[in-house]
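RECORD CONTENTS
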Amino acid sequence: MTASSEIRLTLEPNDEAPACQAVCALLRDHNWNANPELMQLLTSPKPKDPINLIAWSEQAVVGGLLGYTQRKWLRIDILAVAPDHRQRGIGTSLMREAERLARLRGCCYGYVDTLEHQAPGFYLRFGYQSSGEIKDWDSRGNAKYFLTRRIAPDSG
């Protein structure tokens, strides 16, 4: 189907413009009709609960994991270790502790996205599996990987 001569397309640079909000409302209304149970879950107040773990060596930060838990999921936003402290188990310790805390909060799954030049191999060795890939994500030939892992049995 193509836009008919009766339809006019415009470019709206402001995400908060009333026209953009009207588009959001169209999708929201569709989702409420198609899957009210999920929409209730998504709109109920369940804030993100931060998990920000910092690795210290004496007085200096040498690494950390920044993320959060929400519903049954642990989201890892950033995991970084200083170059001179890599290959010492710091990343593994950060991951284990984040997953332990997430399980205590009732999480069953973990997810992360990482770029090709970052650490996909680390997460794969840790038991994460590819859930998707965007080739040439940065328009310079580097892929972005989406990885997930079951960290506890799903209780339903």
The first strand starts at residue 49 and ends at 57. The chain has two domains: 12-44, 49-150. DSSP finds four helices and six strands in the chain.
